[in-house]
Amino acid sequence: MIYGIDKLKSLPQLPKEAQPQGSVGGASFGDTLSQFIGDVNKMQLSAADKTAKFATGEVQDLHEVMAAVEEASLSMTLLLEIRKKALEGYQELMRTPV
């Protein structure tokens, strides 16, 4: 599991009436981000599992293992870029004079 992801669930949540409203019928950004983080974690675990199975000889298809590892790597890279852009946006907001 990615370090610190399990702590996201314990963060305090705003009451439903105080939460910002997104587009009609759409998921909030936080929900979408949480789902994406969970998906990335699943891909990382799956790639590690396939790598271990390949090392023990349970899986013979190297192509399948490499595809899972690359998919997990690309999704982690995308997650890190999203994090970087979110932090840059937050820092820009903090520099904005009030």
Provide an overview of this structure.
With 98 residues, the chain is an all-alpha fold. It has a domain of 68 residues. Helix 2 packs antiparallel against helix 3. The radius of gyration is 18 Å and the shape is elongated. The model has no long low-confidence stretch (mean pLDDT 84).
List keywords for this structure.
67% helix, 98 residues, 0% strand, elongated, mainly alpha
What's the short version?
This protein has three helices and no strands. By secondary structure, it is mainly alpha-helical. Helix 2 packs antiparallel against helix 3 (62-95).
Please give the structural blueprint.
Layout: H1 5-8, H2 29-56, H3 62-95
Helix pairs in contact: 2-3
What is the global morphology?
elongated
Rg value: 18 Å
Query: Average pLDDT value?
Result: 84
Q: Characterize the largest beta sheet: strand count, sense, and whether it forms a barrel.
A: none
Distance separating the two termini: 40 Å
So how many helices? 3
Show unreliable segments. none
Approximately what portion of the residues adopt beta-strand conformation? Answer: under 5%
Give the % helix: 55-70%
What sequence of helices (H) and strands (E) makes up the elements? Answer: HHH
Q: Work out the number of β strands.
A: 0
Structural class by SSE content: mainly alpha
